[in-house]
């Protein structure tokens, strides 16, 4: 019997991203190390590496919350990043098209002179190269347009989800600080100092 083939790194990235986009919530690394193997079949030793690759590529966002780091990827962020990529590719396509048109006009001038010069040969080569680049950019543009997620209707709910999650973390920190202060007599200011809690931490 053949050995079952494991997930590729790209497959793991895709499945990890699905955890965020499907739940629309925030996670710590420890939470992801529990969820990813069970829900998406991502083996525990690779969870951190896959997550870091998504953060490095600016696909998943992260921030410190007290002593822990939280990770998230909200639908509105995915939409904005795709729109920015589409705008960039569209601008690049227009620039290449303009450059191609200028070279075509220059080539036509040389043709009218009936001179098979070195300059004309170089221009032809540049035009051919630009045509290849334009086709490549068009392919990329089509990919991003076709994969643009239809989540605009959910954007209104995203801010509420983020707000609730942020306040939930804040409430957890306040509860822990209160318990520690009551249990061990540690002043709140010392607790904040020891655990890196900002002095101005408040509910949003």
Automatic annotation (TrEMBL):
Species in which this protein is naturally found: Galdieria yellowstonensis
Name assigned to this protein: Meiotic nuclear division protein 1 homolog
InterPro entries reported for this sequence: LZ3wCH, Mnd1, Mnd1_HTH
Residue ranges of every copy of the Leucine zipper with capping helix domain listed in the record: 150-204
Function comment: Required for proper homologous chromosome pairing and efficient cross-over and intragenic recombination during meiosis.
Location of this chain's protein in the cell: Nucleus
MF (Gene Ontology): double-stranded DNA binding
GO terms for biological process, alphabetical: reciprocal meiotic recombination
Lineage summary: Eukaryota, Rhodophyta, Bangiophyceae, Galdieriales, Galdieriaceae
Any one annotated GO CC term: nucleus
Coiled-coil residues: 79-147
């Amino acid at each position: 019997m053949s050995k079952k083939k494991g997930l590729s790194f790209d497959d793991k990235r895709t499945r990890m991203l699905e955890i965020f986009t499907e739940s629309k919530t925030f996670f710590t690394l420890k939470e992801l190390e529990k969820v990813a193997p069970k829900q998406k079949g991502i083996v525990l030793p690779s969870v951190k590496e896959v997550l870091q690759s998504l953060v490095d590529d600016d696909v998943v966002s992260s921030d410190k919350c007290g002593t822990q780091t939280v990770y998230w990827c909200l639908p509105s962020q995915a939409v904005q990043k795709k729109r920015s990529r589409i705008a960039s590719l569209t601008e690049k396509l227009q620039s290449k098209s303009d450059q191609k048109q200028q070279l075509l006009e220059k080539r036509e001038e040389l043709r009218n002179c009936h001179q098979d010069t070195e300059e004309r040969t170089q221009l032809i080569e540049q035009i051919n190269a630009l045509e290849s680049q334009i086709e490549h950019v068009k392919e990329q543009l089509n990919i991003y347009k076709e994969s643009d997620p239809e989540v605009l209707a959910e954007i209104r709910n995203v801010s509420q989800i983020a707000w609730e999650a942020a306040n939930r973390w804040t409430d957890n920190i306040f509860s822990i600080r209160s318990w520690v202060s009551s249990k061990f007599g540690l002043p709140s200011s010392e607790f904040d100092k020891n655990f890196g809690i900002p002095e101005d931490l408040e509910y949003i």
